[in-house]
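--- STAGE predict ---
source: upstream dedup step, 1 unique chain passed
mode: sequence only
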Amino acid sequence: MTERFDQELDWGALAPLRLRARSAAEGLWAGPHRSLRRGAGVEFAGYRAYTQGDDLRFLDRHALMRHGLRVVREFETDTDRSVRLVLDVTASMSFAGSRARGAKLAFAAVVGAALAWIALRGGDRVALEFIGDHGLPLPWGTGMPTFERIVSALEHARAGGSVSPERLTQLVTRLGRSSPAGSITVVFSDFLDLPASALEELGALSGRQRALVAVEVLDPDEIDLPFKGPVRLRALESDLVVDTDAPRARADYEAALAEHTAKWRDGFVARGARFLRASTGEDPGAVVRRVLEGISGAGA
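--- STAGE serialize ---
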């Protein structure tokens, strides 16, 4: 069994990130799409909590003076949209099997960076967040300098450790407060070894005029367990080690994986989100296209 358990990210054939992302993005998304633009001359869409960096021109002074509430007004247009990328950087995302182009986190980074390039080229705002402690989040930004900052943050991200229920709650709460109506959140994760509350927590990012697309990122070796004879399976986010016979375990393993995926898929779909699976053995451009189709459907 070929496996890599080190915490340094294995980029494999996916590096350099900037070029791989642009190659996957070229020509995939050029048409108009619906979102929000703050400013005059567009349709009023509602209020949300003020976050640092918001344009003070749209701070609702009446709410501030009467109730001490800091909220901003939002307006809708057909020209741009806000896209937030959320990448899982817990330890299991460092896995790279024998047939993979790179680690799961590396593959998610290429697809995420490609989406950022497409969105920013279209004049949209993009932000970046991480599930775990090994990535530097970035606030909303526009223009190609934001793409360079996103690429740098992704290149320096590392997969390691786990995320506690408390940290996950804090993350989702912050995202909920800083995501404007009409925004789209794209989550990349293997959805393995996350807290029991993760489905409900992440699912809450869908709804109230906000869309969510969940991308399950798995290695080919995780999907079909191709090994022969005795095999030792080791959990990346715990001390669990299992010795088994691969051919005998394969049917039970595939059934368990199907049940796991169905739980997350059905849970997200029930909350109005879109869900898709991506294999790190795929062409990243094909995955970018499917994510864009999910975004289009989520925004319908």
